[in-house]
Design a protein that fits this description.
Radius of gyration: 19 Å
Low-confidence stretches: 1-48
Strand content: 5-15%
Number of helices: 9
Number of strands: 10
Largest sheet: 8 strands, mixed
CATH topology: Alkaline Phosphatase, subunit A
CATH class: Alpha Beta
Distance between the termini: 42 Å
Shape: globular
């Protein structure tokens, strides 16, 4: 995607700041593995340590960071020196984790967040037709965002370079380094998130869920994640954070680089230390880095990378058969939520925990 239809940007900065303040106030078969223990940056706000039936410990905060179009064998020390090099001894790496069969990006994002997808999502349809403003692809199904909302657990779907909260249309251009793709934003595909309203406090007017939880990471300037970074520094970050870089930083498009893998690795080098330095980071915090689908150079190899970081993660290389529904199942277990759709029979990520 070299150019995209522009959404209105004017007059939204102050509005977004108010929205961020409103939603973020809650802040509140495997091979053997060896490696050093992950450091604890902060223990503030530590949650209980009860484990699910799969052995997944409860989590205080979870950060799922999604990269684009990369098969596992492309994630090498040379291509990804930070994730595959600097962090290698502190991560659990899943070998055998597969993307959705016969699907493009959107189907994978939907699978990660609801455990199923429909044909228009697997075909990368946007939720709304930009020419007619008519809805063309959406579902009335339960999803991780609605599950958290129903349990009053704070969450945000963070989208880099999104021009305003809950944006339905693509925006930006490669030459500007600010490409936002609506089809990489799963929250806007769910009827119980987009357009749904809820009463946050007694006596206050209803709030639109999507506008208060589907948030830009920063401005539309290149590599700008200042709003997300500010919330991290304050410690008022939601408990669940679904983080999607723009189409330059997630490796989807080559924006002045020879390899998209390196572009995404630079994003991780910049943002992962900020997450781990946040007052919200503690013994029960987790980071997961997962790619949506296989690379263009390896179209038949659906084995994508999935990497876990946290104090209660046992570093090493693990082999099995997992998929995006396994990721959903693990996040649901970490928050004590029921398992949705294909997350119920999906192989759990269970062997990586201390």
């Amino acid at each position: 995607m070299n150019t995209s239809q522009k959404s209105t940007r004017a007059g939204l900065a102050g509005f977004v700041l108010l929205l961020s303040a409103a939603v973020l106030g809650n802040g509140s078969s495997a091979a053997g593995a060896t490696g050093p223990t992950t450091d604890v940056v902060s223990q503030q706000g530590q949650q209980g340590s009860a484990a699910s039936s799969d052995g997944v410990p409860s989590a205080s905060h979870v950060f799922v960071i999604v990269g684009e179009n990369t098969s596992l064998r492309e994630v090498t020390r040379r291509a990804a020196p930070y994730l595959a090099g600097v962090l290698r001894g502190r991560t659990a790496r899943l070998h055998g984790y597969r993307a959705v069969r016969h699907s493009s990006s959107t189907g994978d994002y939907i699978e990660m967040t609801s455990g199923q997808s429909i044909a228009c999502e697997r075909n990368d349809s946007n939720p709304v037709n930009p020419d007619t403003d008519r809805s063309i692809c959406h579902q009335k199904v339960d999803n991780i965002f609605h599950q958290l909302q129903s349990r009053h657990i704070s969450w945000a779907d963070w989208q880099e370079s999104m021009p305003h909260p809950c944006a339905f249309y693509d925006d930006g251009a490669n030459w500007a380094g600010d490409v936002y793709g609506a089809h990489h934003n799963p929250a806007i595909y769910y009827d119980d998130i987009e357009g749904n309203r809820y009463v946050e406090d007694f006596g206050n007017p209803p709030r639109t869920v999507c506008l208060h939880h589907d948030l830009p990471m920063g401005s539309t300037a290149p590599d700008n994640t200042q709003r997300f970074d500010r919330v991290l520094a304050s410690g008022r970050v939601p408990r669940f954070n679904y983080v999607v870089p723009n189409d330059c930083e997630n490796g989807h498009d080559l924006c002045g680089s020879r390899t998209g893998v390196r572009q995404f690795d630079r994003f991780l080098r910049r943002e992962v230390p900020k997450i781990m330095a946040s007052p919200a980071w503690n013994r029960r915090s987790l980071i997961n880095v997962t790619w949506d689908e296989q690379g263009d150079a390896t179209p038949r190899d659906r084995r994508v990378g999935s990497v876990w970081i946290g104090t209660h993660v046992r570093p090493g290389d693990y082999r099995g058969r997992w998929n995006h529904a396994s990721l959903l199942r693990t996040v649901e277990d970490a928050f004590g939520l029921p398992r949705l759709a294909q997350a119920r029979p999906a192989p759990p990520v269970s062997a990586i925990w201390r």
